[in-house]
Structure prediction request, 758 residues.
Amino acid sequence: MKASNRRWKEILDGHLPDQLAAEIDQFETEIELRRQGKIDEKVFAETRLRRGAYGQRYDNGQRHDGTESKTLAFPEVESKGPNTVWDAPGMLRIKIPYGGMTPEQLELMAEIAEEYSDGIAHITTRQDFQLHFIHIDDTPTIMRRLAAVGITTREACGNSVRNVCGCPFAGVCPDEAFDVTPYADAYTQFMLGHPDAQNFGRKFKPSFSGCQQHACGLAAMHDMGMVAELRDVDGKQVRGFRVVVGGGLGAVPRQAKLFDEFMLPEELLPTTQAIAKVFGRHGEKKVRSRARMKFLIDKWGIEKFKEEVLAERQKLKEDPRWTEYLQDIDQYEEKPSRPPSELPPVNGDVRYANWVKTNIRDQRQEGYVTAAVALPLGDLTGDQLRSLADIIREFTNGSIRTTVEQNFVIRWVSKSDVPALHAALDAVGLSEPGASNILDLVACPGTDTCKLGISSSRGLAAELRMRLTAKSYELDEAIQNLHIKISGCFNSCGQHHVADIGFYGVSRTVNGFKVPHFQVVLGGQWEENAGSYGLPVVAIPSKRIPDALERITEFYMRQREAEEPFAKFVKRVGKVKIRAVLDDLTQNLPKPETNPDFYADWADPRQYSLGDIGKGECAGEVVTQYEFQMTSAERMVFNSQVKLEDHDVQAAGDSAYQAMITAAKALVQIQYDDVTGDPDEVVEEFKDRYFDTNVFLDPFAGPKFANYFFAAHQSAGREFSDDSAHVLIEEAQLFIEAVHTCYNKIRTEGIETTGVSK
Prediction:
């Protein structure tokens, strides 16, 4: 143990709960045992993930100490003996239940970011904090220091109950049924480390919303979402929750299904415990890509799932914690530090007026407002965190929360203090306008630090934000109110599925070179707790995405009906017309020698060079044949979306399946050009030549996308519902992306397929 870590242990151990101190000690011991090769990496990986310690990539940037790093972070470093040193740092995720923080916690986060990271703290789309460039040896000390101010990293990652999301306006929103904060807090404490929640095949994400109409809690995209409701029972208003289960984004998203229209608070925790037991017992364990709760509900149906849960609920031994927290819940309320007042006039300051318009929101308590602190890309410095702590002490009782849009919300601001609050935020670079509108782009880490990143989501977000900011005063209000969300890959960490306009990273080969692209996703709905999910329309080169966004918004302004929201516009106009506006952006791409910048990603320090030319090029005729087949596959999967829009769900599902067959045939023909279009033959040849030989193993998803293909073939001819057709379209698009990835690998790495020759 380093001397500094030992010093912190001596200082803090007496101030931590005994159980928590013992758990951190145990983790520190496991780190040492893993270093000595006495713990298997697979076991240690889940151990550290449940402590919030993630791996991190460094193949395109600099470490925080200024030295170049091209290694992966600590989970991938193999133990080669007792003296192995893990030099490559990683990422630490820190749970912030329902986003609630204190000034003291903000100040400690600033210290840790500066002492152990690169000085930058990042807020995630689940209201957590993430610190990058953290060395594994320092994590126990960081955990002790966080625990001393009431913060934990426990179960921030891994196959566990993740951070409990909650509306940042809970308790102050004019539209809420009631304040969900104490319920979210009780849920957090009850499920943290609960023995019935330790046997999951994958993660479990819960959320609390105070109303149905807004997006603050995003209930529909969670494994378990609770939406507050009030009902009259015998002349008395009774609190309860509309509970939905089985939601999730990821590669193939699912809308949560209704579990209970009105669950009484005293049943919330025991029902959650029963759900955890059913999910732990019956959820998938072997095939990781099918291990979320949404797949168990797909398999059983919601009625059987509910029956199993209610039966399990009856078997549970009574636990006083189920209802203890309810005894004083009516007395729970935050208090202001200053009396209510009126908002002073703006007096002609355009910048301040814009900030008030976009970032200030009335509370249900007369005389008070909330103020959003918009954080570009969710980042802020240690100094800004300290300043924010001082600001909320000055203007509130320390009331601040993180949001799912990677921002802060300062609560209980007396209206007369708004000008002074703006000045204080402005002095430390925290007065950006545009909270929750088109300027407030959300992006996952992408290729900056994530091992799964395909394209630079943060780089693109920064570029789009710069361009939009330059003309923000010219934008129509309908455009200003759009939500843009960007993911570096298909996994939707940037929540691209529920944006008005979403983008996710993919790769294509152009003129013999890999070129970063983004799929354009349309049809999502941010409001109504993530009311609907979008679908990909077309993949466009990364450097042309700003042009694509401009065309989409201009087309919307030309064609929209009066006051028509974007989601309804997309549904009415249809994706065929919108794609026609974008199609030429995929054509006439420049040669590398005339425009090398086109072949680099946004904000990526790597420049194009002749050394990037792939080895083992295929013959021109084969490339043409492959590209012809893939064009057909892309056309088919897009046509399936059109059929879905026309409510021809059977044709939509069949077309998506045919797209997968066509894409698989494109790969098979590289080696065996006599293959027919017979689906059985295509599947057999694909499995023999690419799947069984591990050539098709996607670096980001392993065999998952091939299994989508095999499952679709096994159920060929089935009847489709709207939901099942939607899912198959998503799976077909992902399989096509995986075919592109496999083809790129074959070309650039000189890989030979080894299937049986015909």
In short: The chain is about 40% helix and 15% strand.
